[in-house]
Structure formats: C-alpha cells, structure tokens
C-alpha cells in the first residue's frame, strides 16, 4: 500500500456508509471522501446543529454529495437504539466507528459507564451489534473501528472496567483504545467462525491535528495546556486529511484482512497507510472473549446472529 491516497479509493456508488463523529476532524474527512467517491453517507453525530453544519460544509466541498444527518449520542444507549431503529436503508456497506473522547476528567455516561470506556468502546459495541443484521445482509460489508497508538499505555482491567477504584485519565483512555482493538479481534474471530462476509478491521491516525486534543483542557479551563496542545498540533501533527487515510484504506481498499490494524507508515506517527504494531494483549483470544461477554452484559446488546 505504499503511497496510498484518497485517489485510490474505489468507486463507492450504490454503497451506504455510516461514520460516527462525522461533524469534525477525522470523521468529517472520512465522510467527505466516501461521499466524493459516490457513497451515500450518514453523518452520525451527537449534535444536530454541528452535524447539519458539517453536512452543509461537505456539500460545499463535494457538490451533489449524497449525505444526511443521523442523531447519535454514543454516551447514551437509548440514543444508540433509536439511531439503529430509525436507520432507513436495507443495507450497510461501511460502518466507521470513529467518534471518541480523550483524557477527560472523570465522568459517566447516561448509563453510568466511565465516559471514555462508554463512548469509545461500549457505545460503538452497542451500535455495531444493533446494525449487525444489515451488515450481515450486505455482501462485503466492513466495520472499521478507530483506535490509537496510545492503546499501548494500558491493557483493559476486567475487574475495574469503569475505573471505579482509581481513575487516571490517560490510562483510562489507553484502556478504551485497547478495548477497541480487542473488540475488533473478537468480532473478526466470531465473523470467521460463522462464515460471514463481513470484515472487521481497525485503524489509527497517528498524531493528527484535530479538536480531540483540546477538548479536556477547554472543559477544565486549562488555557496553558490547551495552548500547548494547539502548538503541538501545528508543529508535530499531520493534517486530519492525512490522519483519516488509514481508516479510509481499511474501509475501502481491496484485500484488507480481518483484524488488521492500519496506521501511518512512519513510526506510527505520520505518512501513508501501512500495517501497524499493536500490543500483544490486543490479540489475546481469552481476553477478547471476556471483554465481549462483559460488553454484552453492560450494554444488553447481544450479537445473536453470531452465537454458536
């Protein structure tokens, strides 16, 4: 895949895609480029105002783009259920689980989950499970879950998934990103066991300049930290356009392997999409199955079509 760019995305005409967190950053670029290639794209966003504004901007960049807004709050399992129930299409070719939060002060979702685990992993687990019948009914469907190289900070703690005993924001973030990779690993294993024509893969953007880095400092009024984040984005990070390439590759390129992990080629930081290193614990079958069981219990979303 050396030098792979958006010019290499195959024609997406007739295909339906959902991109979570599509109102800004990596999600916006991912949705825009899928639409540019002819896909019908649902911008799955928490805020209707920001989602519709992103849709207007996208159509301005890609006249005639076939896009629509769908309200989705990954921190509220009721919203996840409603999004899936309202989904108007009888097929789903691409699901990009992109939305996320990073290093927030301790908080909980509407369902009582630690926010980073709840949004980054459990919300996407529930969304994928509720959309699974459509994915299984669509030949060649793909599910791409966006993780991070920061997953290397920490394995999940199955005895304290919600960080109730001790909360360290960056460790909690790393655990949520490890959960993304373990979910992909176990999902791919279960799909293969059932002979399903669906590819579950993962990707990460390296260090990409988005508004993700500044969210926590803004929430806490830490202006100096926010300014440092902005300087880092300007000096060291690659653009959101470049950061979205690994997910776009995983979602569209021919021959993408199940359970693959795609990221930037240069030191997992920047550059064209390439196979990326991942921590050994994200390939642990027993841990993946235990996280899956816990996720079904917590979300009350069961992947019945993949049961033995």
Overall number of strands: 8
> Which radius of gyration do the C-alpha atoms yield?
18 Å
Largest sheet descriptor: 8 strands, mixed
Gross morphology is globular
Structure in words:
With 308 residues, this protein is α/β, with parallel strands linked by helices. Helices cover 43% and strands 14% of the residues. The chain is built from 10 helices and 8 strands. The chain has helices spanning 25-36, 48-61, 77-86, 115-136, 169-193, 212-220, 223-235, 240-243, 245-252, 285-299, and strands spanning 16-20, 40-45, 67-71, 94-97, 141-146, 198-203, 261-266, 270-275. Strands 3-2-1-4-5-6-7-8 form an 8-stranded mixed sheet, sandwiched between helices. The protein starts with 15 loop residues before the first strand and ends in a 9-residue tail after the last helix. Mean pLDDT is 90; it is low at 224-229 and 231-235.
List strands and helices in order, with pairings:
Elements: E1 16-20, H1 25-36, E2 40-45, H2 48-61, E3 67-71, H3 77-86, E4 94-97, H4 115-136, E5 141-146, H5 169-193, E6 198-203, H6 212-220, H7 223-235, H8 240-243, H9 245-252, E7 261-266, E8 270-275, H10 285-299
Parallel strand pairs: 1-2, 1-4, 2-3, 4-5, 5-6, 6-7
Antiparallel strand pairs: 7-8
Helix pairs in contact: 3-4, 4-5, 4-10, 5-10, 6-7
